[in-house]
Amino acid sequence: MESPLEQQSGTPVTRQPVSQPVSQPVSRQTLHNESLIHYHQALSDRNIFNNCLHGLSNTNFHHAEGTDTAVYRMADKAVKKHVNMLDGLALFLIFRGRDRKDQSVVATGMIRETGGVKIVYANNSSRPASPEQKGYIDELIEKFKNQIPVNDILKHVIPFCKEKIVQRCKKLAAKFDINSTTLREDISNFYGIRSDIPEYTEMETTLRDQRWIQKTTSLSTALDTFLRYAAKLTQLSTTKDIFAVLCFAYALTTITPGMENLVEPPIWRRMIKMGDYRKICVRTRDIVRTIGGSSANITVEQLFPPDELEYEVHNSTLEALNTWSTVYPSESPLQDFESQLKEYYPDAKEGQSGEQKVLFSQHCELTVAKYLLRLKTAITLPKPIEIGCSKASCFWCDLYLKALNKLLPISGGAITRATHRNLCDGWMMPQALPGYEIVNIEVLDYIGYQVQIAFDCGNNRRRKSDSLPLDRGALLQDDEMQNESCREAIF
Ligand SMILES: [Zn+2]
To answer: How far apart (Å, rounded) are the C-alpha atoms in residues 172 and 246?
Structure first.
């Protein structure tokens, strides 16, 4: 089985600087390797890596709100538009709900080839699409090329993406404590929107004029009905029922002004996610028309990450992190969760003693990034690697892409739209591409450093506040990075 790490050394190592076997294909800056602390050797042992990643993920050492990535924020309009389009395409390829890891997240990329485009996509698993799913994708492309009505395209998408769509609908309803068994019929005006303000009247009039709601129905009643409809959807619901909910969400989030100002941002975001299904149909159809419509040459290829691998790790956060002391015997194991970890990481989960199986997988955006990076030539080098994601990237993927971007020209970096910044347990480190080994080394050093901080804090050698500058990513910063207005320090 292929190792996700660069080396397979399980023997104790000392903290000696190691020589870096790096040949950088493109480097507009010198990495300050001498200032790095070399922890990557310890983490090249898979057992140590898995346990440390598991332990760190459970300390929530870097709790922060999700955000758009800096590279996305600073990208020009055309690049942003392209990334958004790729995000949208990913939506059409999510065949499973969130509890089914294998096909529940998707990343996409696009390569312009002579006479057409190739769309690539990946899941977190190496499972190939079924013949039915392949048939669905081929038919979808044909429908876009033939410019068939948007509603018909959406009806084609719904049966294959039903699990995820229904989940998204139910998530909105759940915000108001409505579900399929509790519809709260006694409540009206869930959104609490005032009907005496101009935005309300304007929206109601527009929706009536465009026949999204009946002349006699108030906006407030229509919104309540929409919510209960969304709550009632199940995997057994018909395409027609789901279609109605998605179309109304589309209307609320695109054709009427003002809704964004009338509801709370989390509600708005959930409505957007439902409306997106139709919106992306509209946009993709337009794009396909501009590249030739029925004569456009569009191919779709699934990319495969390494197989997902299940590993046993220590369930207890303390025990998982303590594998560190097996490589650094001078580090006596942490003994007390409350005083040595919880005090410094208030969100840390203790975990039970014993073993736990965790599935490690290479996340889809990294599979796409690696594929596109491999295709880069001297000519395409300055062009950004645009990656679409069905959901924001995790902390580790974001970290990896930032380390990778340090080796690429400013205009040629990997761009994903956003990161939710959660520390995802079971994150598999990708095998480095030749010439880009330093990326893996830096990320491993960063992970090792965070484990070391946990030990230092636990043993009172370091106050959390002292570690803040390093906590914020000094291992992956350099002066030039900090001076670049279009790059942010790692966090
Ligand atoms: Zn990730």
So the answer is: 12
